[in-house]
Structure formats: C-alpha cells, structure tokens
Amino acid sequence: MRKNKGFTLIELLVVIAIIGILTSVVLTQLGKAKNRSNDTAAKAGLNQARVQADIYYVSNGNYTNVCNSSTDSSNPKGINNMVYNSGASNNIAGTVKVNGVGTSTVRCNDATNGWAAEVPLTNETGYYCVDYTRKGIVTTTSIGDTNGFCQ
Question: Is residue 148 part of a domain?
Fold first, then answer.
C-alpha cells in the first residue's frame, strides 16, 4: 500500500475560501479607515482656516471677502484655498461655493462681522463646520448659502 502525501482538492478549496473571506474583511476595514482619515484631514484643514480667518480679521477689522479666492494672494491671506483643500482631502472636486455662488457642496460664506465654512464628511453623516465664533462642529444642518454660523 502506498500512502498519498499532500492535500486533497477539498482541503485546498477550503483554505482558499478562508483566505478570500479574511481578505475581504481586511479590505473593508482599510476602506473605512481611509474614509475616517479623509474626514480627519478635512477637519484639520478647516481648523487651520479658522486660525487664518482670525489673522485676516485682526489685520482688516472685518471678515469681508475672507472666503473670496481673490484674497488668497493678499496679505494676510483669505481662506478660500484652505477650504478648497479641505474639500479635496475628502475627495470633493470643484471650487468652493462662496456666498451662494457656485455649485460645490464645499461652502464658505462671509460678511462684515462673521463667516462660516463647511465640508461634507464621507465617514460620518453631515458636515464639518467652522465659523467666526471659533466653533468647529459636526452637524447635519448645512450653512446654506447665506448663514454666517454653524448650527
């Protein structure tokens, strides 16, 4: 009698199926981690924009045009490019919708005495919003096209 050494076809198929299941679980978790990191990057970018808006206010005495892209090259700079980059880090393409002008879901509104900016989140429901009150919150209520604060 000769003993067969090796694996049967059934044993090999079971091992391959287990590896496939484990791979799908790991890849799913990696995708979720990537979305969480994108949300974190968007939040960090908007928090930096909040600091830059304060610098803009101290220099100019108001927030007028702080969201406008033309102030990105002024001294001190506005926050349009920072808000844009926050949206881009969350894979949202396009320009920033400023005071209702544009089509983006990344918004920035400004007025003489206030401003607010928001980016839609991919891992959480809603938006991350920062404003002139130094508030940074996750909210399901958009700032819309004219509100000057996060709700």
Answer: no
Asked whether residue 146 is assigned to any structural domain, the reply reads: no
- The CA–CA distances, whole Å, from 99 to 8, 20, 38, 89, 135 equal 68, 49, 25, 22, 19
Cα separation, 144 vs 150, in Å, equals 10
The phi and psi torsions of 119 (rounded to 5 degrees) equal -135, 130
* Domains: count for the chain: 1
H runs (alpha helix) in 61-79: none
Pairing, β 107-111 against β 136-139: unpaired
Order of strands, sheet of 127-131, starting from the edge strand that comes earlier in the sequence:
97-98, 107-111, 114-120, 127-131, 136-139
Q: Shortest CA distance to 79 belongs to which of 115, 27, 129, 25?
A: 115
**Residue pLDDT, tens place only, 97-120:** 999 999 999 999 999 999 999 999
Let me know if residue 54 belongs to a domain.
yes
Q: Does 149 map to a domain?
A: no
Print the domain residue range for 73. Answer: 9-139
User: Would you state the pLDDT for residue 145?
Assistant: 83
**Strand-pair category, 107-111 with 114-120:** antiparallel
pLDDT band at 92 (very low <50, low <70, confident <90, very high): confident
Whether the pLDDT of residue 146 is over 80: the answer is no
